[in-house]
Amino acid sequence: MALQIVPAIPLACLIWVFPESPRWLIKVGREEEGLAALARLHARGDTTDTFVVAEFEEIRASIAEENMLSQGAFTQIFTKLTNFRRFVPRTGSRTGSTRLIESLHFSRMAGFSSASRSSSLSR
To answer: What is the pLDDT of residues 68-83, one digit of tens each?
Structure first.
């Protein structure tokens, strides 16, 4: 465990010197800086390089797709009451036998049965 701290100390001290990620810069709306960072990494500062421009457009497209797909996906669990009810298990009103029956039912739905289990054990 002590050896793991050796590279962590210089990394923690130098983290402020490292440049920001071009993808992060583009994601937060600082597109000119993101393009300049891509150009520094791939084309010695030439922002008109075809590879840099293609990479920049690809990053913008992937960020737009991520934003479109993630709109309200996780927050809908907590904001809509019906989804919240599905998410939070209501185990307080269930008895032990009800839980046993449910677990047997779900294990059969998953393909486990007492016959298949005993035949696999006898092999």
So the answer is: 877 666 666 666 666 6
Question: Which residues of the chain fall below pLDDT 50?
Answer: 91, 116-120, 122-123
Residue 21's contacts (CB-CB under 8 Å, 6 or more residues apart) are: 37
Reading the block at residue 42, the tokens are 């791939």
DSSP state of 4: G
| Whole-structure pTM value | 0.53
Report the amino acid identity of residue 47. T
Residue 36 in tokens: 């300049």
Listed residue (53, 25, 28, 27) closest to 39, CA to CA: 53
Nearest of 35, 9, 5 to residue 22 by alpha carbon: 35
Helical segments of 43-112, H only? 50-69, 76-79, 81-87, 96-109
Cβ atoms of 42 and 55 within 8 Å: the answer is: yes
The percent helix, strand, coil of the chain (3-state, each to 5) is 70, 0, 30
